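Q: I'm teaching a short session on how sequence maps to structure, and I want students to see two examples side by side rather than one. Could you give me a first protein with its sequence written out and its structure tokens following it? Keep the formatting plain so it prints cleanly on a handout.
A: Of course. Example one:
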Amino acid sequence: MDLRRFPKLLAQKLSTIGSRKKILYTYIYIKLRTTFMKLRISFKKKVVLVIITVMFFFGTLATIAVYGMMQRTISVLAIEYFESIVIQQEETLTNVFNNSKSFVQHLAAHDEVIKYLQQEDPQPQDAFLLAHFTRFDIDHSYQAIYLMDMTGRTVVSTDPTFVGQNYGFRPYFKKAIEGELVIDSAIGVTSKKFGYYFSHPVKTPDGVIIGVLVAKLKDTLIGDALRPKILSPEGGAMLIDEYGVVIQTDRQELLYKSFRPLSPALQKILADTHKFGNITIMPLQYEAEGVILTEIKRSTAFETYDAQHQRNEIIGIARVNNAPFFILLEEPTQGFVAVAKKIARIVSIFIALASAGVAILLFLLVAKLLKPLTKLKAVASQIGKGNLKQVVTIDTGDEFEELGMAFNNMTAKLNDTYTNLEGKVWERTADFEKFRLAIEAVSDPVIITDVDGRILYANKAMETLTGYTQLELIGVKPSLWGRQMPIEFYGKLWETIKIKKEEFHGEITNKRKGGERYLSELHISPLLMNKGKLYGFVSIQRDITARREADKTKNEFISIASHQLRTPLTVINWYTQMLSKGEVGQLNNEQQEYLGRIQSASKRMVDLINSLLSVSRVDLGALNVKPEQIQLTEIADSILVEMGNPIEKKQLHIVREYDPQASSINADPALVRIIFQNLILNAIQYTPEKGIITIGIARKGIAEILITVADNGYGIPVGQQARIFEKFFRADNAQKEQPEGNGLGLYIVKSILELIGGTIWFESEENKGSTFYAVLPNKKD
């Protein structure tokens, strides 16, 4: 019997035997289900509750959706509306500024003003001109109206404190003297009051500029036009100059603050022009608006978060037409959110009322439709009491009638099954007894456990193997004779059979009742029900202690024999070298040919002996790992030099792909050399003439080095790739193309890598080549 297949066959058999209980389970299920249904609410109530729950669920989703949609819609509408308000306020301010521009432009063109400045020595505070200025300011909208000569000195002013003062440093004078109509804002140097300056050059009829007329508008007029009435008390309005500084606002904590830090150049301009007196301009936390101010062309509105007040706000910004100012309005969004909540509340009330009405209608409708279930319930109750001859009669012409017919068929079949159940139980019992006797006759130890590993059954062979009787084994766990392996081994075992529900194959060391340790080949198969439910395990063991001892003896014999053969082979090689060099006389061509064959055969014998010795040391665990700092590139290149003859003979092209950062490694040089020798030798042997062999050394992660040896040779057939690392195995195409070889090289490489904590794998396609990957750990000590 195949030991690997036996656990699976046993599991299938036990699963079949377990199915004999299904008929009884069906009967018990119907009875328990009938009783259970009595303790629960009726089906019609369930239907109504489910529908109400679904309506409530989707109603809640609808309410949330409506709330979100309304909030977004109202937000969009609010932004659009707010933008229109900003535009209205901008137009209002534009009208105020245009009126002041017209005022100063008109006044500067009066003959009285021109004639006054044309005098050779005009008298300051000319009474006629002063009265003229006062008469023009009918609404008293201006803090001061004053006239400056070409030097910037004030000669006439409605505010007498201005007379004699030189304001030539002010931008509104410098630009106006060049012919521009200027609008500016600043804190007065003399009055210490903030205002808006409108300046216009005074020109003679022939266009010569002879002075500048300035009207300083009161800031209260701008304040009245700045804030719209629709703003809530929490909202705010502000006017910002071309430098991003708030020059007027109803929120005093923002006054004379900039929307972004001012550059040193701007700070110097403000200081030189005394625009804000001695006030230090500090930046605000309005980075987003600060960016928009430099880019805005007309007007815009958007929603943003005010970190200072920790709330969402709608911000509206507009550039005042033909003026170096921006108007900014802000309004909290709480009012708009409240509207969305109110609409969502109305929707939720409507859904609740609709759900209540639908629930009442559904209850009445479902009660009528589900009357046939009462009949089914009564018949099921009788069946639960053991009366399997009951018949249900339903004449509805729908699925309930079909259900009644199916129910009657099931009852009839259940009655027949129950009648024959006793005979089937005896038949299954006999089958199980036969199966138990078959297991007892198996020479290999067999145990059956539950899902927790407690032994339910153990055959006689298990007694012989462990020394424990069947009575001692039943009810205990295999740890009674186990616990000889690392804890990681048992963790992997349980993960395989219990979590993954897969078969486990491996070798395990256990201890007999007398304390003697033994090595077993272990196979465990999960016992699964039809739907994959786990209900136990079956385990087969085979004592391989004697076989392992035999293998050890064999390896020791091979090691001794190989050592004994090396001495005569060394002598043979020594004498053949003497003969080939002509040290004992010249040889003719025929003798040279025979001598070459002797040398070739001797070399193959030496290679075979070296491989056998390596295998012997691997199997006996006699390889000593002595890591030291080495250079992988030097080892690889030295092996290529050693194998120069076959490389040149086959005209192979060698490609080196060395990573300089990956060359140095802490490893055993002798073992690394064996790895390189076997991988490179295989590539040379199984690559045709003029082929390409690529040797790569690269870093893999932090503490590993990846070695790759690739060729475009014969490749490995797909059907034989699984055996490529087996001892003495050679693929069919390899034997055909290269008869010489012993099939030990890859086995040795894999064994060495496993010993030092490395790994190896390959990719291959027949007639296209192979690539072998070997990962070396970079040992720190």
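Q: Perfect. Now a second example for contrast.
A: Example two:
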Amino acid sequence: MRADNIVVRQIFLAATAFIVMIVGIVVPGHAARAASSVTVNTVAELQSAVSGAVEDTTITLGNSFPQTLPGAVTLNLAAPVAVRIDGSGMTLYPAATGRHLTVTTSGSSSLRLENLTFALPAGSTATNGGVYVTQQGTSTVALSDLDFVGLKTTALGFGGSGTGKLSLTRSSFVGNSASSAAALLYGRGSAVAATTMSGLTFEANRGLSGAGYSGGAMRVDAGAQGSLLIEDSLFLNNTFVDGGSQPRGGAIALHNASVQLTLNRDYFRGNSTASSSKPGSADGGAVSVFNSTPGSNGSLRVSDSVFEANQAQDDGAAIFLEGRAATQAEKFPTQLVVENSTFSKNVSGDAGGFDTGGVIQASLRVEASVTNNTFLTNTKAGGRGGIDLGAHSATEATYGAQSPKGTVVNNIFTAAKSVDVGTWGCGTNVGCAADTVTVTTAQEPQLLLDVFGTANPALDSNRTTRSAGDPRPGKTTEILGTVAIAPPLSATSYTAYQFAAVGSTPTADERGIAHRTAPALPDAGSLAMDYVRFDAQTNGGSWSGLTSLFPHLGGRYLGDPEASQGWYEVRDPGTAVPLPTVDPTAPGGTEFVGWFTAPTGGTAVTAAPAAQGQTLYAQFVPFPTFTVTFDSAGGSAVAAVADLASGDLVAEPTAPIRDGFTFDGWVRAGEAYDFSTPVTSNITLVAAWTPVPPLTTIELSVEDVVQVYGQVKAIHLSVSGVSSGWINVTLGERSLGGVPVVDGAAVIQPDGTSPLAVGSYAIYASYFSSETPLRTASVVGAEGTFTVNPAETQTTLSVEQTKGGGTVSLQGSVTAEYDTVPTGSVRVRVAGREASLLLPLDEHGHYGGEMALPEGYAGTRLVLSSEYVNDADHLASTARAELAVPVRGGAGGGTGTVLATTGASDPAGYAILLVSLGSLLLVVTAATRRRMRR
């Protein structure tokens, strides 16, 4: 995360510079006083302005001030005044010998030096230059906005026994080299001296030999005292090589000093230490604190910092500490506190072959507290273990047994040999707990997946606003990255979430974000995280086609495209999170209605909830479905159609049946319903009916059938139940047409032109309420049979009328109407024998009396009777003859056969009726053909 990859916005630069300027001329502890300004163009003018200041003074280097100094420049400030030297952004080159500047302050004076670059001319191989500041008394010194570039000696040194404050801010040390301490040497000798360094960049500084000392970029010198705070600073690619007997501290080394060094919000990357002559002592790739005697109690406190890709040829790729105590009863003089920091990709070569501290090595009499740190992907070449946290114990001839001790809690360890548990044990840590390493080598990949949500966790900004390095535009800075932890993905997963005990962690994480407070548990590691989990699966929902995302803080975690473990919105604890941008797919027949605090019921969540480790559940409801109800209005039941989605069509059901009514369709709100109309609500359709006459019983009665050349002339029907309407009669397959019903009766009068073939014929009648049928009913009793038998199988009887006209009736009593009284005789042929019967007239001129029996028919009786009615229009007579004769021919009973015969006077006047096979009934009626009535 270099500045050329991550743009760090420099906010309030102008305002900060202005404030610094103002603060620089106010001496702490001094009342405000008169101030003056002076521009100097020579070294002598500068020296005079500093040493001769009697009031607070701002000294500005003028345009004519020499870039190459004529000699070593010495500045002395003793007066109780505040002097500010503004270099106007100039680059100064040293003289042939000596430093750029040697500054001494004393008494209660205050000196501020700013806006200068100290360098060598291009191509110079000079090994001199730099700045050295000696503080005495209570004087204060502030250095700001300085650059030390490419010097071949220690670029900046501090010394003196003064107790006043010293600050170094907004400055860069780039590409300097020296035997050791290529960028900065710290040697203040006061136990109460307080020094603050912030916003510094130390890049590519090299310690080349050291001659027994240490420190590639910076060394706190032997005998130094006081407190030194380095914060918001970047140590990048600094090295220390071949450092004599003590090649330690690629970036920073404390060597037999009693300084309490605090590193806060600092970034160490790519720093290293190595030695060809003493590889087993090349410890502390980034930081080394080495106390070879009990008289030195240099200690280290690290917080909110990052150590990435640092290397040590031996132990302690990030941090090495060694301390000693004169006796076992003496308290531990060397203290190590490491909290809220991240250690990643640091490499220990383990050149010594037996110590154990790959990332952090605590050697001998060191008391350590290692809390809430994240260790991942660090490596160590060999040794007894302790890839991340190791120890070295020994019994020395002078001081006896020396061993470290301490507490290790709430850290994240990711390797099977992360901790030298023989020394440290394990309290409560991810990957190391209950005094044993709890991760095997085979389990390491799963631990990474569970804890970080990815097999390749890496540093990321994770919404931090903190950066390390010189904040001036164009200078190198780095975002102080962290490694986001994943939410707890299952009940059996490794997790750093809410892992630590209440009260066992710092109040905030590496980024300054407050940890959860009781009753909620804080997280392990250097980053506090919270989340809201959105669960679509519990109620049958799903996602698909999502992009798997690593849980960068301030983003979301999706373990797979289906978010099968849930959709996590990951944030700082208590921070509002957005609802998912994609609604889950609802189970079939349902729709998504929102997020709720419980799988069923609960409270709907419609606004961004605060991240508190809660789960919200997707709830679904059935699609709105509708039912179409059919009200048959007294007809047969019609089932309702349910579960219709909005826009569906309902199929028209089978029409209901209702006696006495005709179904006219379905209506809604009085209007005929169109079944192509989409259903969008519950509706009821009502059957429409038209009343029809009740079912009518039609009785078929063939009361009078006249046979004319085999033609049915008339069929008389009686109709019950109605007095009007229409009758349609079918004889066999021939329709005889429709006739009106009058007073409950109907007469069918065919046209008499189509002969009937021999056979049996069904007569069927249908009733209609009008000429156009509205309803066809099964007609009870409306069928009859008229049969014609073949003559050749029967005994025949022929009757011939010799005079007059008329007809012969086949059965029943038929009244023939005449205009005149017929006379004549009847000739009877029975079984081929003829007999003549005279039709006698009575005194009124009608047929009457009993006729003589034909010859040869003994026992046969023939009766002829006659009657008439005289009125103004007609003279009616009836002649009836009965003849019983033996019958030859077919046997058995049955219906008779109608045959037609011819006659001399009236071809239509002859007929024969064979009524039964057992007896013969002959009914002869003579009549005119004018008309007939019943």
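Q: What should students look for in example two?
A: Point them to this: The mean pLDDT is 76. Also worth mentioning: Residues 13-24 form the longest helix (12 residues).
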